[in-house]
Amino acid sequence: MDFTALLLILVFFTLLAVNVPISICIGVATLAALVLHIDFTPAVTTIAQQMAGGIDSFALLAIPFFILSGLIMGQGGIAKRLIECAMAVVGALPGGLALVNVASCMMFGAISGSAVAATSAIGSFMIPEMEKHGYDKNFAAAVTASSATTGMLIPPSNILIIYAIASGGVSIAALFIAGYLPGILVGLALMTVCFLYALKNKYPIAARLPFRIVVEKVAAALPSLFLVFLVIGGIISGIFTATEAGAIAVLYALALSVFIYGEIKTDDLPQLLLKACETTAIVMLIIGASSAMSWLLSYAHIPQAISDFFLTLSDNPIMILLLINIILILVGAFIDMTPAVLIFTPIFFPVAAELGMSEIQFGIMMVLNLSIGLVSPPVGSVLFVSCAVAKTSIHKIIKPMLPLYIVMFAVLMMVTYIPAISEYLPKALGLL
User: Fold this and answer.
1) Which residues, 6 or more positions from 47, have their beta carbon under 8 angstroms from its beta carbon?
2) How far is CA 159 from CA 94, 123, 389, in A?
3) Alpha carbons 56 and 50: distance in angstroms, whole number
4) Residues 6 or more apart in contact with residue 187 via CB below 8 angstroms
5) Which of 247, 290, 331, 417 has the most C-beta neighbours closer than 10 Å?
6) How do residues 221-260 score in pLDDT, each as one tens digit?
C-alpha cells in the first residue's frame, strides 16, 4: 500500500512538472500504480470501466448546461449591467470602484458559475477603470481575481455538483443553499480590505448618483439576477432537479441575451455551443480520470490509512482540521479544483466525519479552501487570467494579494470551526 501511494504521487507530480495535462497525469499515474496489483491489460480495462462509471451520472448532466448558460451570460451584456448596478449602489463609498469590482464579480460569478469567466468579463472593464482613477493596477487585478472565486460558493456552482457526486450523493440543493452565507462573508471580507486600502491611499470618492438613476440601474440588472432565484428557487421547491435547472438556465440565458438585451446574434450560437462542448469534454475527462484514481485509492485502502494516521497524530480536533486545511491549500496551489475535490474528498472526509463534521460543512470548507488555490501560484488559473487582463505579472500581484489571502483564510477558519455558517440556511429551509 505504501509503495502504491508513493508511485502514484511520484508519477503524478513528475508528469505535472513537465506540463502534461492534468487528466493525463491522473490517468497515467493511476495506471502505473494499478499495474503493481494486476497485469497491464486488466489494469487498462479496469481504469476504462472506472472512468466510464465516473461520468455515468444524471447529476453531472447539469454541468454542460451550466457551462453553456455561463458562456451565454458572458457574451450577453450581463457583465455591463451588473457593473452599472454595483456602481449605483456602492460606487459612492470610499474605495467605491474596488467595492464595485468585488460586488460585480460576486454577482457575475454566481450567475455564470465560473471564476475564470467572472475575472475575464468583469476585469476587462473594471481593472482599466480602477487604474484610470488612480488605483494601483496590481491591486485592481488582485481584487478581481480574489472576488471572482466567490462564484464557486454562491450557486449555481459546478464544483458543488461535483462534490455532491464525490461525497456519495449529498443533497445538491442543501449544498447550494449552504454556499450563500460563506460566499457573502468572503465578499464582505474582501470589501473590508478594499475600503481600508482606499482610505489609506486616499483614493477619490465618486459622486453619489440621484436615487432615480440608482433605481434604474438596479432594475436593469434584475433580469440577470433573477436567474439565480429561478434556479435555486426551483430546486428548493422541488419543481425541478439540478440537472433540469441547468437546462432552464440555458433557455433563460438565451431569452435574455438574444431577445431582451439583443447582445447575442443567432450567428454567434454555433461558436458558443462549440466552446461549451470543448469545456465539457475537458471537465468530463478530468472527472473520469479522477474517479479512476479515487477507486484505486479505495482499492489500496489508502483513505483508511490516512484517516488512521490523522486520528493518531493528535486528539485535538482543532489541530487536525487545521492540518487538513493546510494540506488542501497546498494541494490547491498545484491541482485544479475538480480533480482535487474528486481525489481528496474520500481521503479527508472520513477524518472530518470522525470529528463530527457534516458532509455539508466539509464540502463548503473544501470548496472555499480550494478557491484560495485558484488565486495561488504556481497553478492558480484565475490569478493568471487576471494578470493577463491587467497586463501585469504574477510576482507584481502577490504583494497586494497578501491582505486578501489573509481575510479569505480567516473566513475559511470560521467555516471550519463554526458549523452554523454552512448549515444554518439549509436547516432553516428544511433541507437538512
Assistant:
1) 27, 30, 31, 34, 292
2) 34, 22, 24
3) 10
4) 102, 103, 106, 147, 150
5) 290
6) 888 888 878 888 888 888 888 888 888 988 988 888 888 8
Give the model's pLDDT for residue 123: 84
- Exposure string of 226-249, with b = 16+ CB inside 10 Å and e = fewer, is ebbebbbebbbeeeebbbbbbbbb
Closest CA to 165 of 358, 44, 294, 353: 294
How many CB atoms within 10 Å of residue 92? 15
φ, ψ (nearest 5 deg) of residue 210: -60, 150
Cα 414 to Cα 102, 237, 368, 369, 417, distances in angstroms? 20, 29, 11, 12, 5
10-residue stretch averages of pLDDT, the chain, 432 residues long? 78 86 89 86 90 84 85 77 82 82 84 78 84 87 92 86 86 91 94 90 78 86 84 83 86 86 85 89 88 84 78 84 91 84 88 91 95 83 86 87 95 96 92 79
- Please, are residues 379 and 329 in contact by the beta-carbon 8 Å criterion? no
For residue 337, the enclosing domain spans: 2-428
pLDDT tens column, 180-195: 999 999 999 999 999 9
Number of domains in the chain: 1
For residue 182, whether the previous peptide bond is cis, meaning omega lies within 30 degrees of 0, is no
Write out the three cell numbers for 423: 448549515
pTM: predicted TM-score of the whole model, two decimal places? 0.85
Distance (Å, rounded) from C-alpha 366 to C-alpha 162?
12
Q: Write phi, then psi, for 315 (nearest 5 degrees).
A: -105, 10
Separation CA 431–CA 423 (nearest Å): 9
Grid cell digits, residue 347: 481521503
